[in-house]
Write a structure and sequence with these properties.
Blueprint: E1 2-11, E2 14-19, E3 25-29, H1 36-48, H2 57-60, E4 67-75, E5 83-90, E6 94-99, E7 102-104, E8 115-118, H3 124-127, H4 130-144, H5 148-171, H6 180-215, E9 222-227, H7 242-252, H8 254-260, E10 271-276, E11 279-280, H9 281-284, H10 287-309, E12 314-318, H11 326-336, E13 342-346, E14 359-365, E15 368-372
Parallel strand pairs: 3-13, 3-14, 8-12, 12-13
Antiparallel strand pairs: 1-2, 1-4, 4-5, 5-6, 6-7, 9-10, 10-11, 14-15
Helix pairs in contact: 5-6, 5-8, 6-7, 6-10
């Protein structure tokens, strides 16, 4: 898949923009604050309904305006017709979505144009708690299987209700029997979430190991392991009966849950353990190794899409080149040159590869993006 055109109105620093990227590699360069990251953010927002920065729509409004709109036109094959999707936001109205010119629910856009996004902050995948790693899985699975988002939303609603009942039991205003209806929903939707997460981590691990071996130097090995959010004494396997495991964990933890007023088992406690050379990457790996591991995981997401649905998603790499030494840059650029549409942002106006007609340079300055002539950097 590839994006033919990006249109922005009042998004971040752009008043109006019509941008036609390369079907292969677009190198967007310019000084800090020029709007490179803003362009990538607009693409992620229009395809997932959320900013990768985790901010609200009000934060994405151009200063002094009360609405914005992002429109993407793209193709899935050379002989097919173009498709389009758009998301607009108005302060007094909220969000509106369109697919091929027709109004749709925002969630209907998710998965239509899959994207994979990497930024320097992706080190959080290793450095912070499990929330970031769960979010990675949820974004990936939702784009592969849009119905997954429904199970996730229903689980979260049931979790809130169960926690409210736990508070009631602790205060004496509710009876333990009131948990039954919410336990049933948690088990039903939670088991489905855990089953899909475990499966996708298994496939992602294989792809990540292959990519990591191509980028990294030496004998380092990358490993990912799904860690289910169950009680410590609950063991799981690839053929685990997730419904039975989760039901048992909820029953065993009822006393603790009532005392704490929170549910202690379920996919909201899941994690993905990232190891390098069989040791925790968070404590064992250097920051440079952690960055390459995170990049390998993102590129593995792209490969997983190709395996699952038969095509590559659009790859968005924000300021990745400046974080790599020359050897790792060349290895990454070799991978990117093979296939698929790629957006790269950088403060530099060239890449380390020799001249390549698939690479188009664009200078980002103020409120515009201008096509430039490719000039290779010295080897």
């Amino acid at each position: 898949m590839w994006i033919e055109e990006v249109r922005l109105v009042n998004f971040r620093n752009y008043s109006q923009l019509i941008f036609s990227p390369s079907p292969r590699i677009s190198l967007l360069y310019g000084h800090n604050g020029a709007g490179k990251t803003n362009l990538l953010e607009s693409i992620v927002y229009c395809t997932t309904g959320r900013s990768p920065r985790g901010v609200s729509e009000d934060a994405m409004l151009r200063k002094g305006t009360d609405f914005f709109k992002v429109t993407l036109r793209y193709r899935t094959d050379p002989g097919g017709s173009a498709r389009s999707q758009a998301v607009s936001y108005m302060v007094q109205v909220g969000r509106r979505a369109q697919y091929n010119g027709k109004s749709v629910a925002l969630h209907a856009l998710v998965g239509q144009l899959p994207v994979v996004y990497f930024c320097p902050d992706d080190l959080w995948l290793i450095k912070t708690g499990p929330g970031a790693r769960r979010a990675l899985l949820d974004r990936l699975i939702t784009q592969l299987e849009p119905l997954y988002a429904d199970a996730l939303a229903r689980y979260r609603r049931a979790l809130l209700q169960r926690n409210a009942v736990l508070h009631g039991i602790r205060s004496g205003s509710r009876q333990p029997a009131a948990l039954a209806i919410w336990d049933a929903q948690l088990v039903h939707y939670g088991a489905e979430i855990m089953r899909r997460r475990q499966a996708v981590v298994g496939r992602l691990t294989v792809a990540a190991q292959e990519v990591f071996a191509r980028i990294s130097v030496g004998e380092n090995q990358l490993g990912l392991q799904y860690q289910a959010g169950l009680r410590e004494n609950t063991s799981t396997s690839e053929d685990c009966n997730w419904s039975a495991c989760l039901e048992r964990a909820l029953a065993e933890g009822i006393t603790t849950d009532v005392r704490q007023g929170a549910t202690g088992a379920g996919p909201h406690r899941d994690d993905v353990v990232i190891r390098m050379n069989h040791q925790l990457a968070k404590t064992y790996a250097s920051q440079g190794q952690q960055r390459i591991a995170c990049l390998a995981i993102r590129l593995a997401e792209r490969d997983l899409f190709r395996q699952e649905v038969g095509y590559l998603p659009v790859l968005l790499l924000d300021d990745v080149l400046s974080e790599l030494d020359l050897m790792h840059r060349r290895r990454l650029e070799t991978i990117l040159a093979e296939e698929g549409q790629v957006f790269l942002t950088s403060t530099e106006s060239s890449m380390s590869r020799t001249e390549d007609p698939s690479i188009h340079q664009f200078e980002v300055a103020a409120d515009r993006i201008d096509r430039q002539t490719y000039v290779p950097s010295p080897m």
